[in-house]
């Protein structure tokens, strides 16, 4: 900060700082405040706002949890969707981690630099295409009479076509694909900085491959794993396009619930409250990951 | 049973490039053995072959008589100390040392006990629970050695482990390494481009160049009786006088050079009429002319080093002539421009054939440059 003043002078520095401040306030902070404010009010018509019926309430937050019966394990619809989103996003995160770890290790430590950059390019190119198009192409691939079923049938792996899109399968496949790179790059970056000699030293001391990974490679990659998991989880939990395109009525995502409260039920306070509950879920996940992997915010920023 | 390390006709090729060529060598059990050579001479390749990270294209490695072919680094009785040490930064000091035992399934309390013993050996008894990043360079060095010793290897392989340390520490670690080697009795095979390290620590040294072993022997033999021009120029400083051998009698060769007829000990396979070079060390060149070989040269530069001075002179040699003059009171008279009469005894010089292999001559000049850089 003082560096800024020293280099550009007081006037210029103030102009730059106030520019940033206005942008952050107007574009980021204020809309959030509006939503926070909404979420604590009952759903009223414009005329009633500020009138006698208007008061602060926790009703919008509480309504998600109302009707939970832990004895008979019965949950209201919105809460079921919330749980499914939590479970689904966790599963997608885990699948991404399992799929990416070997690939990232290969790219960072085994492949020659030329091959690694070529393969990274191949990985990135599909992501130059719009997310909706990519997701829709999965819709085609997974369709009942789509290419996947035709190929699997031709290979004799399945006898009858599988309805990929009727359960959660389509959503999980689509999300894993959509967010794979958000796991790949943090992992790759973390593994790249691992000194190859450490792997060789562990081997020289007699360690089998799994123990080298368990004791040397994975501990080193922890910040990358944490960042990758956080990214994928947050993106998956707040994804709208993939469940909307690849989901079926039985696989509604919490984002879709929020959307319908906002735009179908016209209940902005309820929608806002649900959005903050989703935010709370993501923050809780981030804090848990930081705790589990014993990484600080500074490690993550690396 | 003896745990000699045998290299039997070992050759390593990478595509068209031959990194190591027909190495035949036996390192005796309990020996401190060094491979000395400039970078790219193949010494690191030999180390990787011994440790099992690479399989030789041809030939065999035997340790204690057992052929190591097909055995990975984790199946050999060797432990490698990496140039950058490769300690595990996320483990504590004692966990690093005990890692090899952990791998072997030794229970935790036994591991810790063994780690404490090794910490005692390396004189760091209080460092068990420290983090690697808290250690100084020399301490890291010793932890790396303890980590390797923990798996009780028959052979320790060291890849220039001192190169990252500063000069004082490097010299201290030389004697430390030597002491640890004596205490444990483990065979040490040491790779270095630093002749000071190789000569001070080793029982025997192998000087390598371009994938071949040029000479194997105790340090003093390598220095005093080089057998090839490469060894003569790579190890230490040498003044060179090239010419043609006039005659050989009683192990003394006389060689016709630009500085006149000079004599020195005849090197191996030297014949009259051969193209050859006479090498004489800077400290063997004496001022005053009462020796069998005489020449004169003019001082152009003096480097004062404290207990001695290096005089650089122009004379009838290949390159400049270097004389090491003791600081015995006569130094002030030795200034640039002074003409000196120099002499040396035939037994102080060695005459080695340089004919035929034109490459060796060109190479050795380049190597001398590299050696000078290393010495600096």
UniProtKB/TrEMBL annotation, chain A:
Source organism of the structure: Alsobacter metallidurans
Membrane topology: Multi-pass membrane protein
Keywords of this entry: Cell membrane, Membrane, Transmembrane, Transmembrane helix, Transport
Glycosyltransferase keyword on record: no
Name of the molecule in the record: Spermidine/putrescine ABC transporter permease
Superkingdom as given in the UniProt entry: Bacteria
Membrane spanning stretches: 12-34, 86-107, 119-144, 164-188, 225-246, 273-293
Subcellular location: Cell membrane
Keyword Transmembrane helix: yes
Main location class: membrane
Domain ABC transmembrane type-1 residues, every copy: 82-289
UniProt similarity note: Belongs to the binding-protein-dependent transport system permease family. CysTW subfamily.
Cited InterPro entries: MetI-like, MetI-like_sf
Cellular compartments per GO CC: plasma membrane
GO biological process, one term: transmembrane transport
UniProtKB/TrEMBL annotation, chain B:
InterPro entries: AAA+_ATPase, ABC_SmlMolc_Importer, ABC_transporter-like_ATP-bd, ABC_transporter-like_CS, Mo/tungstate-bd_C_term_dom, NA-bd_OB-fold, P-loop_NTPase, Transp-assoc_OB_typ2
GO terms for cellular component: ATP-binding cassette (ABC) transporter complex
GO biological process, alphabetically ordered: quaternary ammonium group transport
Keyword vocabulary terms for this entry: ATP-binding, Nucleotide-binding, Transport
Domain ABC transporter: residue ranges: 5-235
SUPFAM superfamilies: MOP-like, P-loop containing nucleoside triphosphate hydrolases
Name the record gives this protein: Spermidine/putrescine import ATP-binding protein PotA
Organism: Alsobacter metallidurans
Organism classification: Bacteria, Pseudomonadati, Pseudomonadota, Alphaproteobacteria, Hyphomicrobiales
């Amino acid at each position: 900060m003082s560096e800024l003043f020293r280099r550009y002078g007081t006037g210029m520095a103030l102009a730059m700082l106030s520019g940033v401040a206005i942008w952050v306030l107007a574009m980021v902070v204020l809309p959030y405040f509006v939503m926070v404010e909404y979420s604590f009010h009952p759903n009223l018509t414009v005329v009633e706002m500020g009138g006698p019926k208007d008061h602060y309430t926790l009703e919008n937050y509480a309504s998600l949890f109302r009707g939970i019966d832990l004895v008979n394990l019965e949950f209201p619809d919105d809460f079921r969707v919330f749980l499914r989103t939590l479970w689904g996003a966790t599963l997608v995160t885990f699948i991404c981690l399992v799929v990416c770890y070997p690939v990232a290790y290969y790219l960072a430590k085994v492949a020659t630099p030329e091959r690694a950059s070529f393969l990274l390019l191949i990985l990135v190119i599909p992501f130059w295409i719009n997310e909706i198009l990519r997701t829709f192409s999965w819709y085609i691939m997974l369709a009942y009479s789509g290419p996947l079923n035709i190929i699997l049938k031709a290979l004799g792996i399945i006898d009858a076509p599988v309805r990929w899109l009727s359960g959660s399968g389509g959503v999980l496949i689509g999300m894993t694909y959509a967010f794979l790179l958000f796991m790949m790059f943090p992992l790759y970056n973390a593994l790249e900085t691992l000194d190859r000699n450490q792997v060789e030293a562990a081997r020289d001391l007699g360690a089998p491959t799994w123990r080298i990974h368990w004791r040397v490679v994975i501990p080193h990659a922890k910040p990358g794993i944490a960042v990758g998991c956080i990214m994928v989880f947050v993106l998956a939990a707040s994804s709208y396009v993939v469940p909307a395109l690849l989901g079926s009525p039985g696989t509604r995502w919490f984002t879709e619930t929020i959307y319908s409260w906002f735009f179908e039920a016209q209940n902005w306070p309820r929608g806002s409250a649900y959005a903050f509950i989703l935010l709370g879920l993501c923050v809780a996940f981030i804090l848990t990951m930081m705790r589990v992997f014993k990484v600080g915010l500074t490690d993550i920023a690396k | 049973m003896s745990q000699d390390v045998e290299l039997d006709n070992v050759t390593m090729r990478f595509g068209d490039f031959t990194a190591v060529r027909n190495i035949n060598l036996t390192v005796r059990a309990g020996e401190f053995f060094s491979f000395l050579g400039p970078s790219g001479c193949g010494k690191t390749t030999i180390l990787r072959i011994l440790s099992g990270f690479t399989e030789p294209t041809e030939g065999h490695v035997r340790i204690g008589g057992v052929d190591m072919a097909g055995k990975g680094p984790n199946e050999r009785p060797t432990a490698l100390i990496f140039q950058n040490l490769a300690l595990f930064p996320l483990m504590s000091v004692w966990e690093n040392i005990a890692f090899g035992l952990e791998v072997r399934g030794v229970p935790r309390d036994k591991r810790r006990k063994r780690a404490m013993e090794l910490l005692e050996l390396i004189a760091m008894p209080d460092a068990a629970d420290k983090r690697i990043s808290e250690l100084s360079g020399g301490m890291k060095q010793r932890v790396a050695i303890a980590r390797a010793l923990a798996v009780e290897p028959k052979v320790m392989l060291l890849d220039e482990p001192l190169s990252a340390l500063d000069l004082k520490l490097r010299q201290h670690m030389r004697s430390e390494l030597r002491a640890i080697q004596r205490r444990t009795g483990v065979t040490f095979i040491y790779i270095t481009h630093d002749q000071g390290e190789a000569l001070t620590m080793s029982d025997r040294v192998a000087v390598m160049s371009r994938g071949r072993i040029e000479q194997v022997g105790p340090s003093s033999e390598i220095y005093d009786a080089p057998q090839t021009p490469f060894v003569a120029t790579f190890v230490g400083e040498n003044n060179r006088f090239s010419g043609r051998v006039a005659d050989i009698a009683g192990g003394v060769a006389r060689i016709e050079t630009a500085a006149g007829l000079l004599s020195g000990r005849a090197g191996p396979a030297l014949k009259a009429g051969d193209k050859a070079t006479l090498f004489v060390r800077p400290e063997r060149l004496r001022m005053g002319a009462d020796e069998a070989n005489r020449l004169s040269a003019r001082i152009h530069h003096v480097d004062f080093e404290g207990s001695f001075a290096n005089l650089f002179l122009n004379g009838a040699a290949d390159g400049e002539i270097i004389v090491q003059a003791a600081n015995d009171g006569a130094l002030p008279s030795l200034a640039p421009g002074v003409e000196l009469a120099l002499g040396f005894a035939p037994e102080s010089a060695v005459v080695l054939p340089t004919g035929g292999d034109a490459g060796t001559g060109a190479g050795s000049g380049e190597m001398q440059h590299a050696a000078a850089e290393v010495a600096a």
